[in-house]
Specification:
Layout: H1 3-11, H2 16-31, H3 43-56, H4 70-83, H5 87-111, H6 116-127, H7 130-136, H8 142-161, H9 165-182
Helix pairs in contact: 2-5, 2-6, 3-4, 5-6, 5-8, 8-9
Length: 190
């Protein structure tokens, strides 16, 4: 068996491309050096909201912004609770969300009938765009909004493809849930 055949066979394994997506997103994130203990862009206000949510159990709006950040602040508060407060910890919470975006985009493309390689290319095109890379290195709500938008799209496709009524209803509820969460993170969803 020649070497190219071995590589081609490895590329056809179901988890080869998702692993490549995760490694690419994490690699680029680490390459931009996210270990800065200072806010970037406007993420200081969202960071403070997550911190205050953890400390008081309530969302606090500081008067600077009135943006909706409910689910995003809760996500940040969970990371602060588990790892302690730092801007880096919150950036890593966005990295987890970005990885979820890449995997959901890949899954959506596969569900729509694209090949494994084309699905991975599409996911990497989205997640390695300059805008997405820059926003992944902040605790802004953009990547969270993208994740919830992709979840709505994926759930809608699953809803359309559902054979059983119970499966249809489950995916419909996923759309509603993602839409409600999406409405709480400042970003416009469909």
């Amino acid at each position: 068996m020649s070497a190219p055949e071995t590589v081609e066979r490895k590329m056809q394994r179901p988890y080869f491309w998702p692993v490549c997506i995760v490694l690419a997103i994490v690699g680029v994130f680490l390459a931009i050096n996210p270990f800065l203990e200072a806010p970037i862009n406007d993420d200081w206000t969202y960071t403070r909201m997550a911190q205050m949510l953890l400390q008081t159990g309530r969302l606090h709006f500081d008067g600077w912004t009135n943006a909706m950040v409910g689910a995003h602040a809760l996500w940040g508060a969970i990371f602060i609770k588990l790892n302690g407060f730092s801007f880096t910890v919150l950036r890593f919470s966005t990295l987890v969300t970005a990885v979820g975006c890449g995997l959901l985009c890949n899954a959506l493309c596969r569900r729509l009938g694209l090949t494994r390689a084309t699905s991975a290319f599409t996911a990497l095109t989205l997640m390695l765009s300059p805008l997405t890379i820059a926003l992944t290195a902040t605790f802004m709500t953009d990547i969270t909004g993208l994740l919830l938008s992709l979840l709505i799209l994926y759930s809608a496709v699953r809803c359309v493809q559902a054979v059983k009524t119970s499966t249809f209803i489950a995916w419909l509820l996923a759309i509603v849930g993602a839409g409600i969460l999406g409405g709480s993170v400042r970003q416009v969803l469909f």
